[in-house]
Amino acid sequence: MAANEQKAKKMMLEVVTPYDVFFEGRIERVVIPAMDGQYGIMPGHSPLVLAITPGIARFDVDGESRSFVISEGFAEIGQHVVIIVCNAAEWPEKIDEDRAKQALDRATARYNSVTSTEEQRLYARHAIRRAKARLASAKEWKNEKKDL
Questions:
Q1: List of domains in the chain
Q2: Is the pTM value of this prediction over 0.90?
Protein backbone atom coordinates (compact mmCIF):
# COMPACT_ATOMS: atom_id res chain seq x y z
CA MET A 1 0.00 0.00 0.00
CA ALA A 2 1.42 3.39 -0.98
CA ALA A 3 2.20 5.93 1.75
CA ASN A 4 -0.48 8.29 0.40
CA GLU A 5 -3.11 5.52 0.51
CA GLN A 6 -2.18 4.68 4.09
CA LYS A 7 -2.33 8.36 5.07
CA ALA A 8 -5.74 8.70 3.39
CA LYS A 9 -7.14 5.98 5.66
CA LYS A 10 -6.24 7.94 8.78
CA MET A 11 -7.60 11.06 10.37
CA MET A 12 -6.35 13.47 12.98
CA LEU A 13 -7.62 13.16 16.57
CA GLU A 14 -7.07 15.95 19.05
CA VAL A 15 -8.34 15.69 22.64
CA VAL A 16 -8.18 18.98 24.53
CA THR A 17 -8.90 19.72 28.19
CA PRO A 18 -8.72 23.09 29.96
CA TYR A 19 -5.26 22.08 31.19
CA ASP A 20 -3.51 20.67 28.12
CA VAL A 21 -3.68 18.81 24.85
CA PHE A 22 -4.31 15.29 26.17
CA PHE A 23 -3.74 13.51 22.86
CA GLU A 24 -2.88 14.49 19.32
CA GLY A 25 -2.19 12.03 16.53
CA ARG A 26 -3.28 10.24 13.37
CA ILE A 27 -5.73 7.38 13.96
CA GLU A 28 -7.83 4.91 11.96
CA ARG A 29 -11.09 5.26 13.93
CA VAL A 30 -12.50 6.58 17.21
CA VAL A 31 -15.57 5.66 19.29
CA ILE A 32 -16.98 8.45 21.44
CA PRO A 33 -19.61 8.25 24.23
CA ALA A 34 -22.38 10.73 23.41
CA MET A 35 -25.78 11.75 24.76
CA ASP A 36 -27.63 9.26 22.55
CA GLY A 37 -25.14 6.38 22.46
CA GLN A 38 -21.71 5.51 21.14
CA TYR A 39 -20.56 7.11 17.89
CA GLY A 40 -17.96 5.40 15.72
CA ILE A 41 -16.07 7.80 13.49
CA MET A 42 -13.85 6.84 10.57
CA PRO A 43 -12.02 8.94 7.97
CA GLY A 44 -14.43 10.60 5.55
CA HIS A 45 -17.23 10.92 8.12
CA SER A 46 -19.83 13.61 7.48
CA PRO A 47 -19.33 16.80 9.53
CA LEU A 48 -21.05 16.58 12.90
CA VAL A 49 -21.00 18.11 16.38
CA LEU A 50 -21.71 15.80 19.34
CA ALA A 51 -22.44 16.41 23.02
CA ILE A 52 -20.18 14.04 24.93
CA THR A 53 -21.13 12.30 28.17
CA PRO A 54 -18.71 10.85 30.70
CA GLY A 55 -17.50 7.47 29.52
CA ILE A 56 -14.80 5.49 27.78
CA ALA A 57 -13.56 6.64 24.38
CA ARG A 58 -11.58 4.26 22.17
CA PHE A 59 -9.38 4.72 19.14
CA ASP A 60 -7.29 2.53 16.84
CA VAL A 61 -3.85 3.54 15.67
CA ASP A 62 -1.44 1.36 13.68
CA GLY A 63 -3.49 -1.76 14.41
CA GLU A 64 -3.60 -1.22 18.19
CA SER A 65 -6.57 -0.11 20.28
CA ARG A 66 -6.29 2.47 23.05
CA SER A 67 -8.92 3.75 25.41
CA PHE A 68 -9.27 6.69 27.76
CA VAL A 69 -11.90 8.12 30.07
CA ILE A 70 -13.46 11.46 29.20
CA SER A 71 -15.85 13.73 31.03
CA GLU A 72 -18.56 15.88 29.50
CA GLY A 73 -17.78 18.10 26.57
CA PHE A 74 -18.28 18.13 22.82
CA ALA A 75 -16.71 16.69 19.70
CA GLU A 76 -16.41 18.44 16.37
CA ILE A 77 -16.09 15.92 13.56
CA GLY A 78 -14.88 16.71 10.08
CA GLN A 79 -13.99 14.40 7.22
CA HIS A 80 -10.36 14.07 8.31
CA VAL A 81 -10.23 15.51 11.83
CA VAL A 82 -11.96 14.90 15.16
CA ILE A 83 -11.54 17.47 17.92
CA ILE A 84 -12.77 16.52 21.38
CA VAL A 85 -13.04 19.29 23.95
CA CYS A 86 -13.78 17.96 27.43
CA ASN A 87 -13.31 18.93 31.07
CA ALA A 88 -11.04 15.96 31.81
CA ALA A 89 -9.38 13.02 30.06
CA GLU A 90 -7.40 10.22 31.66
CA TRP A 91 -5.49 7.12 30.54
CA PRO A 92 -6.69 3.95 32.32
CA GLU A 93 -3.24 3.16 33.71
CA LYS A 94 -3.20 6.55 35.50
CA ILE A 95 -6.49 6.01 37.36
CA ASP A 96 -6.36 5.70 41.14
CA GLU A 97 -9.11 3.13 41.79
CA ASP A 98 -9.43 3.89 45.51
CA ARG A 99 -9.93 7.57 44.74
CA ALA A 100 -12.48 6.73 42.04
CA LYS A 101 -14.40 4.48 44.46
CA GLN A 102 -14.44 7.26 47.06
CA ALA A 103 -15.69 9.72 44.43
CA LEU A 104 -18.46 7.28 43.47
CA ASP A 105 -19.51 6.88 47.11
CA ARG A 106 -19.57 10.67 47.69
CA ALA A 107 -21.52 11.33 44.50
CA THR A 108 -24.03 8.57 45.27
CA ALA A 109 -24.58 9.99 48.76
CA ARG A 110 -25.11 13.50 47.31
CA TYR A 111 -27.53 12.15 44.72
CA ASN A 112 -29.57 10.24 47.31
CA SER A 113 -29.61 13.02 49.92
CA VAL A 114 -33.10 14.31 50.65
CA THR A 115 -31.67 17.82 51.03
CA SER A 116 -30.08 17.88 47.54
CA THR A 117 -31.56 20.29 45.04
CA GLU A 118 -32.30 19.25 41.46
CA GLU A 119 -29.12 21.04 40.33
CA GLN A 120 -27.04 19.20 42.95
CA ARG A 121 -28.52 15.90 41.77
CA LEU A 122 -27.60 16.77 38.19
CA TYR A 123 -23.95 17.37 39.19
CA ALA A 124 -23.98 14.21 41.33
CA ARG A 125 -25.35 12.17 38.40
CA HIS A 126 -22.48 13.40 36.23
CA ALA A 127 -19.95 12.55 38.97
CA ILE A 128 -21.46 9.05 39.29
CA ARG A 129 -21.12 8.45 35.53
CA ARG A 130 -17.53 9.68 35.50
CA ALA A 131 -16.52 7.60 38.53
CA LYS A 132 -18.14 4.47 37.05
CA ALA A 133 -16.36 5.05 33.72
CA ARG A 134 -13.03 5.51 35.52
CA LEU A 135 -13.50 2.28 37.49
CA ALA A 136 -14.59 0.31 34.40
CA SER A 137 -11.65 1.61 32.38
CA ALA A 138 -9.12 0.78 35.10
CA LYS A 139 -10.58 -2.73 35.49
CA GLU A 140 -10.54 -3.31 31.72
CA TRP A 141 -6.92 -2.14 31.52
CA LYS A 142 -5.88 -4.49 34.35
CA ASN A 143 -7.59 -7.44 32.64
CA GLU A 144 -5.87 -6.66 29.32
CA LYS A 145 -2.54 -6.41 31.12
CA LYS A 146 -3.08 -9.86 32.71
CA ASP A 147 -3.80 -11.38 29.30
CA LEU A 148 -0.45 -10.26 27.91
A1: 3-90 (2.60.15.10), 92-147 (1.20.5)
A2: no
